[in-house]
Amino acid sequence: MASKPQASRVVLIDGANSFYRAFFAIPNLRSPDGSPTNATYGFVNMLRKVIREEDPDHLAVVFDARGKTFRHRLFPEYKATRDAQPEDLSAQIPVLREVLEAYRIPILEIEDFEADDVIATLVASAPSDARIGIVSSDKDLMQLVSERVSLLDGMKDRRYGPSEVEDRFGVPPEKVLDLRALVGDPSDNIPGVKGIGEKGAAKLISEWNDLENLIEHRDEIEPKRARNALADQCEQARLSKQLATLRSDVPLPLDFAALARREPDLDALRALFERLGFTRLVESLAVEGAPAAAPASAAPETAVAIVASRDDLDALARDLGKLPLIPLVVVTEGDAAELVGLSVCVAPDRGVYLPLQATSDGEPPVPVAEVVEILRSVLGESAPVAWIGSAVKTAQRVLGDHGCEMSLPHFDVEIAAALLDPAGGRTLSALAATHLGERLPIWEDLAGRGAKALPAVALPLGVVANWAAQRACAVRALHEPLARRLDEDGLTALFEEVELPLTSVLARMERRGVRIDEAKLEELSREYQGELERIESEIFQLAGEVFLVSSPKQLQRILFEKLKLPVMRKTKTGYSTDEDVLEQLSLQHDLPLLILAYRRLAKLKNTYVDALPRLVDERSGRVHPTFNQMGAATGRLSANNPNVQNIPIRTPEGIRIREAFVPAEGHVLLSADYSQVELRILAHYSEDETLIHAFQDGEDVHRRTAASVAGIEPEEVTPQQRDRAKAVNFGIIYGSSAFGLARQLGIASAEAQETIDAYFERYRGVRRFLDTTVEEARERGFVRTLLGRRRYLPDLSSRNRVLRNAAERMAVNTVIQGTAADLIKKAMVGLDAALRAEGHPAHMILQVHDELVFEVPAPQVASLDGIVRMHMEGVAPLRVPLVVEVGVGKNWREAH
User: Fold this and answer.
1) Residue 361: CA count within 13 A, CB half-sphere
2) Cα dihedral angle (269, 412, 629, 794), rounded to 10 degrees?
3) d(CA 645, CA 850)
4) How do residues 836-891 score in pLDDT, each as one tens digit?
5) CA-CA to 884 of 20 to 30 Å: which in 149, 183, 478, 516?
6) How far apart are CA 198 and CA 268, in angstroms?
7) How far apart are CA 199 and CA 183, in angstroms?
């Protein structure tokens, strides 16, 4: 790295502080083998950001010495009140050191000293003109801040110079040590002077200049409380200052020049990030720290031809017709996936790019209509050549929008990867890095990120063409190894018979969209706003004052300071006011219940009622949800823009949103919903005779459960007993504990446990199924659904009881929910094929959990009803019948 003529830039990272904060900043994150990775991931992202923005010439990461330091000899109780380090944090420290070694960043850890002392020594030994940034949130380090030294909070993206330190403490950096002597530090168990707070300490130091002068004049200070406190504890203040003073004479094992920044070992980083499952970071290595020339592990050079004329297009069609498989990648841009171009791989190292938009230096592309005409002959529904790709659903949707209805894809590398490892990386760049050892650039490497990203039309045509050709060739290279692994893991049938054909079904659903009654939403918006104002008025009356209901801070003050309600849980920013806490507090006061009602209604209004009209496509007059068929580890579909799966159906306000989903003129909506499908799957797996007979005889299974548990006849069961049995039935699937069931039903935990015990005594097959499922999963490391879908559960062997119990619940839940997901996906494929084969005018438009929604001309309802029941109820042979409840209406609420 070339030296810079200007003053050197130095970055010193407080390793323990940054690592600890990263651990708590990121939720539970694990590598493919189940190891915790959240702290490592957060730290690496912080490190990359610091390197990118600070561009240091010298760089080091500093850790505290292991064991006790000289401060413990001064004060044996130093840091005695600290909790033990979380197990999952400790487990990541060796991995962090591997990462730092791969980045070739010096690690300093000096026996008998803390990181702060080492940092202070490095600051003192740095060249006098060096600009130094210390990455930490540790207040003790603020005493080092000066015109050339700043403190960087890497998590909150804040920088502290002298003025910011003075704003924070009320004294300049050189006085922070004296202030800390008075205030102390509970986290380090530095006593300080009890009776003097931070504001009071700042005032005293500002008035008397330093600690010794303050002690010398302690009889003169005001107020009296501070005077008395200092008189009694002046030696304690001196000790506190000694403990808080940072040493600048630590013996360092290297000179400052050894901190010169070096290029990272990209191969080592890539191997590490792949092992840890950091797919986005693997992708970023294509540009991070790489020299201008392509490194040895970059994607191989790809020759690319650009279609610029009709003659080129005709020649491409002839070439494609000779290929056994056509690897295809579409280039899209934006949330609406606007088609930019497409690329095909015609040989291992040769691609062809068809631009469908002009770029910054390109000629106007061949008209889309001509491209579609050729594509239809090669890739259309009746075309003889099979095609493979990445994100094939998107390809089918965007090309379908332009009039090219494609044949069923032969392979999708991303879906294959998701089946093989639901928790692993599945983007094309991540797969190329993992399976091919190639660095494949991502779109952001071309266009930039965020608000500064360039549109495709602003990029050079050759750059876009080469990028797309590389990806098409990567698809070709990935096809065989992924197909082989699918076969080895017994996943080929699920892949070929369900997931691949489902891409075509979903592409058609997305293109069709669903009509929205905007007038109804406007009416609901006014109505909900009025109700919010009414609830808000009641809240203010109970609180005795007006405040911002949506502000957690203001709500904390009302609940816990003014109303003196008990604190249920503390957070880093105060006291929790989440839904769980408010539900508990509602047993003691009416205000929390009103807050819950306000939040839920406001969320509905903001997320759906007011947001849905903005999602309506001007051309179609409909909203077009995007369905992700691999969005959950269980295989369940998810959706966004809008997220139709999350529209509540258990509250009147949530149900009314469905009134705004309406059919075209002359059509109705038909809803087909599996009845108690998860309990039927439980009966199939458990082979429990009582459950099986209940479903085979068409009984109310919840009433049957209540009767069996209570030892009474079904007709004697009360509504309350049935509700309790329903909670138990579904609680078994979701792994509810006695405590959870007790809270749900409002009964004592002991009573809930008795209910669960009675259930398992009666349904012994269910108990056996639960135990066997968990045990087999622990032995194999994964569970399987009815159609063979896998989910890996490494936490089944965790020493952490909470993680282990959660994994046990996931094992059972995945078998049940995953099988339900498999069945409805398979039914969707069969239904779509049947409707298209018959030329039926109905369209499948929505899938939500166990429900399918169709838009159908009113006269065709009866025929559609028969087709739907046949395919949904006959989708798979179970030990109990599958039952579908069908409804029809002029909106989704009526139909359901």
Assistant:
1) 8
2) -40
3) 10
4) 999 999 999 999 989 999 999 999 999 999 999 999 999 999 999 999 999 999 99
5) 516
6) 47
7) 9
Name the one residue in this structure whose structure tokens are 């839920």: 600
Residue 291 burial by CB count (10 A; 0-12/13-18/19+): exposed, middle or buried? Answer: exposed
Query: CA neighbours within 13 Å on the CB side: how many for 502?
Result: 23
Q: What is the mean pLDDT of residues 65-91?
A: 80
Residue among 119, 141, 117, 146 nearest 131 (CA):
146
* 167 burial via Cβ count (<10 Å: 0-12, 13-18, 19+): exposed
797 phi, psi to nearest 5 deg: -105, 10
- What proportion of the chain, given as a percentage, has pLDDT over 70? 94
**609 neighbors 524 (Cβ within 8 angstroms):** yes
Query: What 8-state DSSP symbol labels residue 360?
Result: T
Structure tokens at 134: 């210390």
| Confidence class for position 450, pLDDT limits 50, 70, 90 | low
d(CA 326, CA 403): 20
Segment 56-75 shows an average pLDDT of 87
* Residue 156 per-residue DSSP state: T
The DSSP output letter for 347 is E
- CA 104 – CA 260 distance, rounded (Å): 10
Nearest to 19 by CA among 138, 144, 188: 138
Q: What is the pLDDT of residues 282-331, one digit of tens each?
A: 767 754 443 322 332 455 667 899 998 889 999 998 888 888 899 999 99
343 has which bridge partners?
329, 353
Report how far residue 243's alpha carbon sits from residue 237's, in angstroms, rounded to the nearest whole number. 10
Q: Is the pLDDT of residue 579 over 90?
A: no
8 Å CB contact between 241 and 211: yes
Crossing angle between the packed helical segments 861-873 and 801-838, to the nearest 10 degrees: 140
What distance in Å separates the CA atoms of residue 24 and residue 46, rounded to the nearest whole number?
Answer: 14
pLDDT in tens, 90-105: 888 888 999 999 999 9
β-bridge mates for residue 661, sequence order: 516
